[in-house]
TrEMBL record:
<dbReference type="GO" id="GO:0004412">
    <property type="term" value="F:homoserine dehydrogenase activity"/>
</dbReference>
<feature type="domain" description="Aspartate/homoserine dehydrogenase NAD-binding">
    <location>
        <begin position="7"/>
        <end position="148"/>
    </location>
</feature>
<dbReference type="InterPro" id="IPR001342">
    <property type="entry name" value="HDH_cat"/>
</dbReference>
<comment type="similarity">
    <text>Belongs to the homoserine dehydrogenase family.</text>
</comment>
<keyword id="KW-0486">Methionine biosynthesis</keyword>
<comment type="pathway">
    <text>Amino-acid biosynthesis; L-methionine biosynthesis via de novo pathway; L-homoserine from L-aspartate: step 3/3.</text>
</comment>
<dbReference type="InterPro" id="IPR019811">
    <property type="entry name" value="HDH_CS"/>
</dbReference>
<keyword id="KW-0560">Oxidoreductase</keyword>
<dbReference type="InterPro" id="IPR036291">
    <property type="entry name" value="NAD(P)-bd_dom_sf"/>
</dbReference>
<protein>
    <recommendedName>
        <fullName>Homoserine dehydrogenase</fullName>
        <ecNumber>1.1.1.3</ecNumber>
    </recommendedName>
</protein>
<dbReference type="GO" id="GO:0009088">
    <property type="term" value="P:threonine biosynthetic process"/>
</dbReference>
<comment type="pathway">
    <text>Amino-acid biosynthesis; L-threonine biosynthesis; L-threonine from L-aspartate: step 3/5.</text>
</comment>
<dbReference type="InterPro" id="IPR005106">
    <property type="entry name" value="Asp/hSer_DH_NAD-bd"/>
</dbReference>
<dbReference type="InterPro" id="IPR022697">
    <property type="entry name" value="HDH_short"/>
</dbReference>
<dbReference type="GO" id="GO:0050661">
    <property type="term" value="F:NADP binding"/>
</dbReference>
<dbReference type="Pfam" id="PF00742">
    <property type="entry name" value="Homoserine_dh"/>
</dbReference>
<keyword id="KW-0791">Threonine biosynthesis</keyword>
Length: 340
């Protein structure tokens, strides 16, 4: 399985580390992924038909050196040049999310599908904004489009739905899908003000320098949209998701709820309305004893209310370099199993 990695920043390097760490399990499964190209406008773009050594790539990138200095590798200008050389089986798209245009990831995914490659991505933008189009292109090309890492990072929620909840009659999906907000709210329960809690989240790497994507609910809205469309065929757009962030909550709000045995959480919810599925993201007071209320720190959780099984709950890390890398490994194995 020849891989083309697009994006070799934090996520891309995490995927490289996961490929190295998971090599024994991959070999047992009969999968032998080989990275034949890396495309990144910042650290450099190279290809080698025989495969690139991941440890060498990581050393170069971590040292701030260009990947173009990789011994005996061929420098390339962009993804188009790599695809034109017809040397890959799977595009692994790992560039940052843009929820306005989906680019550059959306263009990368479309180009790979047009070239007949399977696609694995952790980038929420293309899936949130153009899922139906990309699904149809993948079907027409006879290839797979997989995106486990776009919702709960390495926690296997989409694979659970695909393999275990099909036919269970899902009535509602709800939960906590943004670890940054959950961390901030947990800190505020202890009396820390919003600004200080946010600053701590940024210091620990849970929040970006511009935290609006997390605290204003955009990240959670994209995730709930991906769930609604890929699991429930809801055919919703990002503008259909009702969205409210947590920046308006005060320590008084938090502690008043605590005194009543409740707590605030940013809840993502998909439910049936009069005209089909509807989705929303916003702060809700929940009982502390409930699964959502007992969740602390950056952990994520989803609850599937089903006809056949009642409530099915899955919880785990919703972010992190290694966790996201594991999502890519799971998707690559799924591609391998389907093709062999």
């Amino acid at each position: 399985m020849r891989l083309i990695l697009v994006g070799f920043g934090t996520v891309g390097r995490g995927v490289a580390e996961s490929l190295l760490a998971s090599e024994p399990e991959l070999l047992v499964a009969g999968a032998e992924p080989r990275v034949v190209a890396v495309v990144d406008p910042v650290v450099g773009s190279v290809r080698h038909e025989g495969g690139l050594d991941l440890e060498t790539l990581l050393k170069l990138a971590d040292a701030g050196e260009s990947l173009a200095s990789y011994p005996r590798a061929e420098p390339v200008a962009d993804l188009k040049e790599v695809l034109d050389a017809a040397g890959g089986d799977v595009l692994v798209e790992l560039t940052p999310t843009d929820l306005h245009t989906g680019e550059p990831g959306l263009g990368h995914v479309r180009a790979a599908l047009k070239a007949g490659l399977h696609v694995v991505t952790t980038n929420k933008g293309p899936i949130a904004l153009a899922y139906d189009d990309l699904r149809n292109r993948a079907h027409k090309a006879g290839v797979q489009l997989r995106f486990e890492g776009t919702v709960l990072s390495g926690t296997p929620v989409l694979n659970l739905c695909e393999a275990g909840l099909t036919g269970a009659g899902i009535r509602e999906i709800r939960g906590v899908v943004n670890g940054t907000c959950n961390f901030i709210l947990t800190e505020m329960e202890g009396g820390t003000g919003y600004a200080k809690a946010l600053s701590k989240a940024q210091h620990l790497g849970y929040a970006e320098a511009d935290p609006s994507g997390d605290v204003e609910g955009w990240d959670a809205a994209a995730k709930v949209l991906i769930l609604a469309n890929s699991v429930l065929n809801a055919n919703l757009k990002l503008g259909d998701v009702k969205r409210t962030g947590i920046s308006g909550l005060t320590v008084d709000d938090i502690q008043t709820a605590c005194a009543a045995g409740k707590t605030w959480r940013l809840i993502a919810r998909i439910s049936q309305g009069e005209n089909g599925w509807k989705a929303k993201v916003g702060p809700e007071k929940v009982n502390r004893a409930d699964p959502e209320g007992s969740l602390t720190g950056p952990e994520n959780l989803l609850i599937f209310d089903t006809e056949a099984l009642g409530e099915v709950t899955i919880t785990g890390p919703g972010a992190g370099r290694r966790a996201t890398g594991h999502a890519v490994i799971a998707d690559l194995l799924a591609v391998h199993r389907t093709c062999h």
